[in-house]
């Protein structure tokens, strides 16, 4: 049985939490939204606990891990899922918006990894997984800050895996294509997401399902992935592999 920290208590974060809970693991959800935590806990049962806090505040993350140590006896896995995106012309995006995206997506992920890593380093190791994106490998219009943040996550993954391997800590990332979710559906309805274009480029011809991304996270933290670290695992239906423009 694994003891797992998941940041984000709705959407993909909740789906990831359910994947671990369904396998009999114990989960702590960290989210800024107390309402999201309460809703998640009502649907997940007694093997989950929730902590209200921000991934950009190290003291909030440390509090969540202390809660895990008190309730579960420690931490084995951390899944850094919390992230944001703002779509808009790069000629108009403000420095404040750009900085905020990097703060949540990059600094927040690092602080989660750092706090979890400190505990894991003195207790036999563990597994850390970042939720990245195919946009960490290639650019996209009107998403400069988001793409920059995900590219940073890829090199952060590699850097931490090299530095922390001696502690038995594995660090990987999952890089999905668009996920069939309320957020993506909202972007489609606002004309800010080219669904037909994504489906046309994707050899498997569709978006990823949330449970498919959750399964990838579960695999990377499992014993079956014991020799995998520093890896960026695309869950993209072949999107990155396709260099053919129709």
In short:
By secondary structure, this protein is of the alpha/beta class. It contains eight helices and seven strands.
Characteristic terms for this protein:
246 residues; alpha/beta; Rossmann fold; seven-stranded parallel beta sheet; 8 helices; 7 strands; globular
CATH homologous superfamily assignment:
NAD(P)-binding Rossmann-like Domain
Rg, Cα atoms, Å = 17 Å
Low-confidence stretches: none
CATH topology: Rossmann fold
SSE arrangement, N to C: EHEHEHEHEHEHHHE
- Classify the helix fraction into a percent range: 40-55%
Helix/strand-derived category reads: alpha/beta
- Summed up, the domain count is 1
Q: State mean pLDDT (0 to 100 scale).
A: 96
CATH class: Alpha Beta
Give the termini distance in whole angstroms: 47 Å
Number of helices: 8
User: What is the level-2 CATH architecture name?
Assistant: 3-Layer(aba) Sandwich
What gross morphology would you assign? globular
**Approximate strand percentage:** 15-25%
Largest sheet: 7 strands, parallel
Strand line-up in the sheet with most strands = 3-2-1-4-5-6-7
Topology, number of strands: 7
Keywords: Oxidoreductase
InterPro entries: NAD(P)-bd_dom_sf (IPR036291), Sc_DH/Rdtase_CS (IPR020904), SDR_fam (IPR002347)
Organism: Tatumella citrea
GO molecular function: oxidoreductase activity, acting on the CH-OH group of donors, NAD or NADP as acceptor; quinone binding
Lay out the secondary structure.
Elements: E1 3-7, H1 11-22, E2 26-31, H2 34-44, E3 48-52, H3 58-72, E4 77-80, H4 95-121, E5 126-131, H5 144-164, E6 169-176, H6 182-189, H7 195-201, H8 210-220, E7 232-235
Parallel strand pairs: 1-2, 1-4, 2-3, 4-5, 5-6, 6-7
């Amino acid at each position: 049985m694994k003891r797992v920290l998941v940041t984000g208590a709705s959407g993909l974060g909740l789906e990831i939490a359910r994947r671990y809970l369904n396998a009999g693991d114990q989960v702590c959800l960290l989210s800024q939204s107390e309402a999201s935590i309460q809703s998640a806990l009502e649907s997940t049962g007694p093997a989950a606990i929730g902590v209200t806090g921000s991934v950009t505040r190290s003291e909030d993350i440390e509090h969540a891990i202390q809660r895990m140590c008190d309730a579960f006896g420690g931490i084995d896995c951390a899944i850094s899922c919390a992230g944001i995106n703002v779509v808009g012309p790069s000629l108009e995006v403000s420095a404040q918006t750009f900085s905020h995206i990097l703060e949540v997506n990059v600094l927040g992920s690092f602080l989660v990894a750092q706090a979890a890593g400190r505990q894991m380093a003195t207790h036999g190791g563990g597994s850390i997984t970042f939720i990245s994106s195919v946009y960490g490998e290639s650019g996209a219009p009107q998403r400069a800050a988001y793409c920059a943040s995900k590219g940073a996550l890829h090199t952060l993954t590699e850097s931490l895996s090299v530095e922390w391997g001696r502690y038995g800590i594995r660090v990987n990332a999952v890089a999905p294509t668009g996920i069939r979710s309320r957020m993506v559906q909202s972007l489609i309805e606002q004309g800010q997401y080219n669904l037909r274009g994504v489906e046309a480029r994707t050899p498997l011809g569709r978006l990823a399902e949330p449970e498919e991304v959750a399964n990838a996270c579960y695999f990377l933290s499992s014993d079956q992935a014991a020799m995998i670290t520093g890896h960026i695992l695309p869950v993209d239906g072949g999107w990155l592999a396709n260099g053919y423009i129709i």
